[in-house]
Amino acid sequence: MSQQERAARTQTALIRSAAEMFDRHGYEKASLNDISSGAGVSRGALHFHFDSKAEVACAVESAAARTLRRVLDGVPSEEVCALQGLTDLTHRLVRLLLRDVVVRAGFLLSCEAGARVRTDLCQQWRTYVHGLVLRAAEEKTLAPGVSQEGVVNTVVGATVGFVVLSRADKQWLTARTVTGFWRVLLPSLADPLTMAGLEPAGTRLAHGDPRRTAP
Amino acid sequence: MSQQERAARTQTALIRSAAEMFDRHGYEKASLNDISSGAGVSRGALHFHFDSKAEVACAVESAAARTLRRVLDGVPSEEVCALQGLTDLTHRLVRLLLRDVVVRAGFLLSCEAGARVRTDLCQQWRTYVHGLVLRAAEEKTLAPGVSQEGVVNTVVGATVGFVVLSRADKQWLTARTVTGFWRVLLPSLADPLTMAGLEPAGTRLAHGDPRRTAP
C-alpha cells in the first residue's frame, strides 16, 4: 500500500469515527481524542488530516453529501411517475440514514447547526424533493389546486422531524413510519387516477432490490 | 420585596437568560458565566439556584412545559371540530415558539437531546396531537381508512422538523408554512363534508384574538 493509499484510508477511518461520536454524543461533546482513538490512530495523525473539530465535521458533511448524491441520483427512475419517485426517494433516504452513520451524522449536523455548516444536506435534500414536485406538476399528476411549496415544505419538514426524533426513539426512522406518512399524504397530493397506481410503501426500485416486490 | 420574591425573580431571570443562550449557541456551547451575566447576577447567585448546566436545562424545559400546557390547554375549544382544533393547536404552538424563547429553547433541547431530558416536550406535544386525532375519530370526521397513527406521526414529525429547520431560516416557523402544511394535509384527513368547513389558516381561537377573523 502506498503512502497516499494509507493516508486516504486513515482519513476515511477518522470521518467514520467522528460520525459515530457525533451521532452518539452530539457535536459539542465529541472529543478529538475519542475520534482519533476510535479510528485507531494517534492524535498527531488526526492533526495531519484536520486542524479542528469543525474541520472534521465539514469532512463528515461532505462525505455524507457525496453518498446522498450517489444513492439518491439513481432513484427517481423514469419508469415511475414523479409522485412515486418522491415516495421511493424518502424510503431510500430513510434506509440510507439507518444504515450509514456518516450520512446520519452529516444530516443531523446540517439540520441542527443552522448557518455553521458549509455543506447543507438539508438544502440538498430539499432540492431533490423540489425537483420531483416540479416534475409531478409538469406531468399533471398533482391534484388540482395543490400548492407545490406546501408539498415541498411538508415532505422536507416531516423527514427532518423523523430523523431528529429518531435520536430518542428509533421507531421514527422506519419503513413503517414513512409508509404511514405517504398513506396519509398521497390522497391529497395525487389526482385520483394517479393515486390508484401509487404504492406508499415504495416500489422495488426504492428498496434497491430488483427481486423484491413492494412490502 | 421579600427575600423569597427576590429569589423567585432571580430564578426566572436565570431561566430566561439560559434559554436565550441555548437558543443562540446550543446547549453545549452556552456557558454558565454567560447565563449568569445575561441575568444580571453573579456566578454565585446562579449556583444558589442550580448545581449544573444540566439542571438549568431541566428548569428551562419545566418552565417551557408549564407554558405549553397553559397556552395549549385552552385551544381545542368545544366550539370547533377536532380537526379544526388540531389545526388551531399547531398555529398556536408556532406562535408560542416564535415569541417565547423559553418554550423554543425547551422544545429544541427536548427534541434534540434524546434520553437526557426529564421533561419531554416533544412527547407532551405528541399527547396533545394524539388526543385530538382520537377525538376526530370519535366525531367520525376523519376520511374513511385514514390511519390515526399515520396522522399523529405526520403532524408531530412535520412540526418538529419546522422548529429544527427554523434555526437556520425563520421562514420555517411562520403562519404561512403551517397554513400551507394544513392546506396540503387536510383534504386527505377530513371527510368531504367536514373539509368544506375547515380553515387551514386557523380560526380566530387559534390566534387568541376574539376580534380577529381568520386571515
TrEMBL record, chains A, B:
DNA-binding region: 31-50
InterPro entries membership: ArpA-like, DNA-bd_HTH_TetR-type_CS, Homeodomain-like_sf, HTH-type_TetR-like_transc_reg, HTH_TetR, Tet_transcr_reg_TetR-rel_C_sf
Top-level taxon of origin: Bacteria
Pfam families per the UniProt record, alphabetical: TetR_N (PF00440)
Keywords per UniProt: DNA-binding, Transcription, Transcription regulation
Residue ranges of every copy of the HTH tetR-type domain listed in the record: 8-68
Cited NCBIfam families: ScbR_bind_reg (NF041196)
Identification of the protein by name: ScbR family autoregulator-binding transcription factor
